[in-house]
Amino acid sequence: MRISRPILSAALVLALAACGSGAKPAAESNEIKVGLLHSLSGTMAISEVTVRDAELLAIDEINKAGGVLGKKLVPVVEDGASDWPTFAEKATKLIRQDKVATVFGGWTSASRKAMLPVFERYKALLWYPVQYEGLESSPYIFYTGATTNQQIIPGLDYLKEEGKKKLFLVGSDYVFPRTANKIIKAYAAANGMEILGEEYTPLGHTEYSTLVNKVMQAKPDAVFNTLNGDSNVAFFKQLKSAGASAETMPVLSVSIAEEEVTGIGVDNIAGQPVAWNYYQTTDTPANEAFVTAYKAKYGQDKVTSDPMEAGYNAVYLWAEAVKKAGTTEVEAVKKAAPGISLDRPEGKVTIDGENQHLYKTARIGVIQPDGLIKEVWNSGEPIKPDPYLKGYAWASGLGTGQ
Amino acid sequence: MSAFVNQLPIGLSIGAVLLLIALGLTFTFGQMGVINMAHGEFIMAGAYTAFLLQNFVLALPAAFLVAGVMGLILERAAIRHFYGRPLDTLLLTWGVSLVLQQLARDLFGAPNVQVPAPSWLSGGVGILPYNRLFIMALAIAGVVAVWLYLNRTGLGRRTQAVVQNRRLAATSGIDTGRVDMLTFFIGSGLAGVAGVALTLIGPVGPTLGTYYIVDAFLVVVAGGLGQLRGAVLAAIGLGLLNSYAEFWSDASLAKVIVFAVLIAFLQIRPQGLFALRSRVLT
Amino acid sequence: MIRMLRRNLPFATVAVIALVAAPLLLEPFRLGLLAKYLCYAIVALGIGLVWGKGGMLTLGQGVFFGLGGYSMAMYLKLTEAGGGLPDFMVWSGVEHLPALWVPFANPVFALVMAVLGPMLIAVILGTLVFRQRVRGAYFAILTQALAAAMVILLVGQQGLTGGTNGMTNFFELFGQDLAEDSTQRLLYLAVAVVLGALYLATRQLVNSRYGRLLVAVRDGEDRVRFLGYDPALVKTVTFALSAGMAGLAGALFVPVVGIISPALLGVVPSLELVVAVAVGGRHVLAGAVLGAVVMGYAKTAFSEQFADGWLYLQGALFILVMTLAPKGVIGVMGRLRRARTT
């Protein structure tokens, strides 16, 4: 024991010195630092890396077009490691040490919730690119993915139009599915639909035979699926081998995009509907350019998906707000942002001044045998974001907190 | 009611999956007392073998070889220096498992990959799809093969001798090093076979192993070290318990219930269902 | 007297560096990180006691850490809600404060529970398991399963625990604004003092008769039993002490880092701490502490440089330490030192 202590102290001093040397010189004046904070390792890396790539593409493009306010954007990339406290830690680092102008980042609700107090505390900006469960509107976050009334409710409208009256709800056990299902139940009650069952499985669950049995016994018209990640693979494989197909048992999913289809196996999921705001096949001029540029940069076999597009948009929207404000200063950017409207790959998006979400067009697609998604229904025009569902009478009393 | 009856074959099929993933462990953990946390990654290696070959039937023997050789290398390079220190082995192999996971991510990419299921496995009888029946058959075949090996071949009997008393076996002229190698080869190979079977029902990705490893160990713990019949009964029991617990509550609670029952069970039979009787002191 | 001084000189040096130099030299962000590592070091100290000295490999220490963290987080959430419902309950659709939560409005109760709660669970589990002479690998696997089950339970009870998100968004502790750098500095000092005090107390304990008994149980449980002692009792007490330390660490962690979530107490974080202890040197209490700080720092530094490499490094480090230096960094340094003096 006696040997150890001098060494311990030496090591501590070293560690301290190393900690202290972490500070970097201030940014050069002709550069603007922006933070990209996604999981590059761990379970969420599979999805988040693609969003980071799309954001880097946007930064590249903006720089090639002359940058913002005559300055080049310099990305500072950090790894959230699929671990929520790490997101908070890295957000703090980006803000306090790297002094970035804004941060684009996050995927899971949990990572956003973990970062939220950091951004509010230091009055810094976060652009969050993924559809989520709503019931939030932080003054320091811009939400470029869909909130519930731009994805879940249009999905339900679609099922209703298709004449599906009896639903079975299947989800991973976390905030998004539980909130989504609460909304679905309220919608069903108001629209004469029936909920035959509501089941949750732990994240990463792979044994679905019991759940499939429950679903098959309940004989619903459709399943509303909020499973996340690898569980989808197991669920669809086991559902299919139980004899269900897209015709006999439609499963509307809200967390399966182009990226996930290959892993699930096209055979297992072809013909099933999904709800998003963007598909690789969405027919707009901006999308053609986006898909071409993305494939040119990252490989012809790559696909683009909704969250990637939302991340890509976030960079452009922020740049637009900065141009309008004439500065990267947070409060000025926040003030300039409302009303900014751009033609993006998904169509026209507009920043809502009230809640800093986007007006987005809802699109229902069907998974094709080639793994891409074909749009079969859309909301016609961009839907005003309504994270607290104040505009829906049936949604009052959902515990929206405001 | 019929849903309730359906849970019986479902429970058995869950049990078969558990048995398949734990069968290799009854060798490495059970026979040799080596806690191999990389067992899950050998399962993953089997699944990726199936992905590379894109041929399910061919993948079964190939995965056995691939995972077996990986196990062999691990045993020779590291584990053999750790016999008698099970806890250190546990941590060592955990390090190996981390490296293998990241390796898989770098080699095959982070997203899940697809292994096409053979067409003759689509469809099913009643509630049980053919692929579940196939897994059950594979589990039974595995158990029979292991039993035959252990009891009907000279090598197997030597293995048992080493398990019961390593030093006495060595004195009797058994090359314990060779027995260890072989045992580890077979145990890891069985994990590979399980990996191929799992491609039928689950995702194939770098984290595949982590989904199954804890369950696999629980089976061996409940069954009793080195006890084939223990593992079989424990797998079936846990499968049924899982199936009915989930049926009556939900998937989350079912896992907690299984754990609680296991603790209670170990109160009654601390060494698992069947204990190896021994007068050896710690 | 002089021997005692000499004996404690290294500790005093470290203490001075930690308490004086660090807060002066480090920028607030880095000091916060160091505070986090020191929280982990408290857990590691407990692992050093229960595994290094007692031979019980616990892979579920995160559970106790989490229980402590959640107790503290419940108190913080309740003060912040000021009589209303915590934010996540509102969006989980909970209408009345659950009975379980009510007493946690009292800071003393919350702090006491942060330590006693984990200890109680450890006593129950320990009594059940050690009485039946479940040990070694069995114990390790059971504690690991406990961690897995605990995570599922916490995630499943979203209205009660905040689900996967856990709890975050804390503003003040005992009337102090948590966003203030001065508060964070105070918190850091508190963590450092607690760690130092626990280290001294544990060292004292290990050098006592009880400590010798514990090592004896590790090296030959049956023989100790034949001598008329009750190894199950010794083990249970040790396990409970380590659980209490982990709980306290969790309670300190929450205001420092500002979040508690199931991801912090699952199988992987529990294992990572064991790794840290092994790397530092499990046979010596200081090794456990050193390991936690070094590994915590390495993780941050590495992931800032290249993210993907962390798993390789962690895995490789682990394999190397286990095969080449089972006594950890401290063991290696000791060997070097001995080689030089002879």
From TrEMBL, chain A:
This is Urea ABC transporter substrate-binding protein. InterPro entries: ABC_urea-bd_UrtA, Leu_Ile_Val-bd, Peripla_BP_I. It comes from the Bacteria. It holds the Pfam family Peripla_BP_5. Gene3D superfamilies: 3.40.50.2300. GO terms for biological process: amino acid transport. The lineage of its organism: Bacteria, Bacillati, Actinomycetota, Actinomycetes, Streptosporangiales. Transmembrane segments: none annotated.
TrEMBL record, chain B:
It is a multi-pass membrane protein. It comes from Nonomuraea phyllanthi. The lineage of its organism: Bacteria, Bacillati, Actinomycetota, Actinomycetes, Streptosporangiales. GO terms for cellular component: plasma membrane. It is found in: Cell membrane. NCBIfam families: urea_trans_UrtB (TIGR03409). The keyword RNA-binding does not apply. One of its GO terms (molecular function) is transmembrane transporter activity. Pfam families: BPD_transp_2. The keyword Cell membrane applies. This is Urea ABC transporter permease subunit UrtB. PANTHER family: ABC TRANSPORTER PERMEASE PROTEIN (PTHR11795:SF447), BRANCHED-CHAIN AMINO ACID TRANSPORT SYSTEM PERMEASE PROTEIN LIVH (PTHR11795). Keywords: Amino-acid transport, Cell membrane, Membrane, Transmembrane, Transmembrane helix, Transport. Belongs to the binding-protein-dependent transport system permease family. LivHM subfamily.
Automatic annotation (TrEMBL), chain C:
One of its GO terms (molecular function) is branched-chain amino acid transmembrane transporter activity. It is found in: Cell membrane. One of its GO terms (cellular component) is plasma membrane. Signal peptide: none annotated. Keywords: Cell membrane, Membrane, Transmembrane, Transmembrane helix. The gene is urtC. It holds the Pfam family BPD_transp_2. The keyword Transmembrane helix applies. InterPro entries: ABC_transp_permease (IPR001851), ABC_transptr_urea_perm_UrtC (IPR017778), LivM-like (IPR043428). It is a multi-pass membrane protein. The keyword Membrane applies. This is Urea ABC transporter permease subunit UrtC. It comes from Nonomuraea phyllanthi. The lineage of its organism: Bacteria, Bacillati, Actinomycetota, Actinomycetes, Streptosporangiales.
